[in-house]
TrEMBL record:
Keyword Oxidoreductase recorded: yes
Function: Probable oxidoreductase.
This protein's name: NADP-dependent oxidoreductase domain-containing protein 1
Entry-linked Pfam families: F420_oxidored
Keywords from the named record: Oxidoreductase
Organism lineage: Eukaryota, Metazoa, Chordata, Craniata, Vertebrata
Gene Ontology MF terms: pyrroline-5-carboxylate reductase activity
GO biological-process terms attached to the record: L-proline biosynthetic process
Oxidoreductase listed as a keyword: yes
Family: Belongs to the pyrroline-5-carboxylate reductase family.
Coiled-coil intervals, chain numbering: none
InterPro entries (UniProt xref): NAD(P)-bd_dom_sf, P5C_Rdtase_cat_N
Gene behind the chain: NOXRED1
Length: 349
């Protein structure tokens, strides 16, 4: 409910010249981009957390659990998320991750040039400081929420501190992923790309908090990677990057190929629609050839892990998964259902 709806003098556009009012739609676009950014970050963090938990459970019950723990002990802990940048996006992102993933405050930290203005986040238990390299060395996932002009210096500070398994998730739209790869000398990078339609129905609201907006089924449906509602679309290569990032997490734990596929099926394809439930044979199941070439599969032993994937290349070029995903509407439906389910809503809600 908008309490200002009938109070004309308190509306944002009150007093604006008529010729300037055509630009008011930019408010809706800006809010829509913020909501999309937070929604997709939440989905990504939930995928990573769920996968890590499944890996931990499997390795704990395995007779080789001590060996695995020795190989990758840092990843056996709670998912650690760092945010570089404490502006509007960084602030909203921290609150939504804390509330809607949800994740414990001790597993979330922010590095910003002005930590003194983040007292409300500190009261929630989030550590706020200014030490980018320290944050990068600590985190499993680093969100870049800084200005484009700040990014080169930030990359210099953190590039030698990033672990190979650390995923850098960039919201800096002005810096392409190929440039970011060079600046960081790092291949585990995700960068969502959004495209805005000129004419769209504003479903994003105006005065509602981002957390409340992300609990609205109408708004959540508009953030779905396969939904054109709301006039903001996400490049589907981002979704491919998320799936290959999940494979890299398995590879970092020396998870053999069959087990990695089982875990991916559990994380991404465990939610089914009614027609699929009636005929389970029609449900998609990931196969090795969905991610690597047939020639590579011939030499891929079941006792080996998948190779390490360059996530920047995945998002820039065609991959086996690109072809599989574009050709399978059933797979697209399952991923859509999984996205909705991660927020606790259904298509019929």
């Amino acid at each position: 409910m908008d309490l200002l709806e009938d109070l004309e003098s308190l509306q944002f556009e009150y007093g604006m010249r008529q010729e300037d009012r055509i630009l008011v739609y930019l408010l809706g676009r800006s809010r829509g981009l913020m909501i999309n950014a937070c929604a997709h970050a939440i989905f990504f963090c939930k995928v990573v957390r769920n996968l890590r938990e499944s890996l931990q459970e499997n390795q704990s019950s395995s007779p080789l659990s001590n060996e695995f723990h020795h190989l990758d002990s840092p990843d056996s802990e709670e998912l650690k998320v760092g945010i570089i940048g404490g502006g509007q996006l960084g602030n909203h992102l921290a609150r939504t991750l804390l509330e809607l993933v949800p994740m414990p405050a001790q597993s979330l930290r922010i590095s910003t040039r002005r930590p003194e203005v983040l007292d409300e986040l500190k009261e929630l238990g989030i550590q706020c400081f200014y030490h980018n390299s320290h944050l990068a060395a600590w985190a499993n996932v680093v969100f870049l929420c800084c200005l484009p002009s700040q990014l080169p210096n930030i990359c210099l500070e953190i590039q030698t501190k990033l672990q190979k398994t650390c995923i850098v998730y960039s919201f800096v739209a002005a810096i392409p992923i190929s440039r970011l790869k060079l600046l960081l000398n790092h291949t585990s990078i995700l960068r969502p790309q959004y495209e805005c339609a000129q004419d769209f129905v504003n479903v994003w609201g105006t005065n509602t908090e981002i957390i409340a907006a992300l609990q609205d089924p109408v708004i959540l449906r508009a953030t779905c990677p396969y939904s054109p509602a709301g006039g903001i679309t996400l490049n589907i290569k981002w979704l491919e990057g998320v799936v290959y990032a999940a494979l890299n997490i398995c590879t970092a734990r020396n998870t053999v190929t069959p087990q990695a596929l089982l875990l991916l099926n559990e994380v991404f394809l465990s939610v089914h629609f009614k027609d699929c439930e009636k005929n389970s044979a029609s449900c998609p199941m990931f196969q090795p050839t969905d991610f690597v070439s047939q020639a590579y599969v011939k030499n891929l032993s079941e006792k080996r892990s998948f190779p390490w994937f360059d996530l920047t290349t995945v998002q820039l070029k065609e991959t086996p998964f690109s072809q599989h995903l574009s050709a399978s509407t059933v797979l697209q439906q399952h991923l859509t259902y999984r996205y909705y389910d991660s927020f606790g809503i259904s298509l019929t809600q």
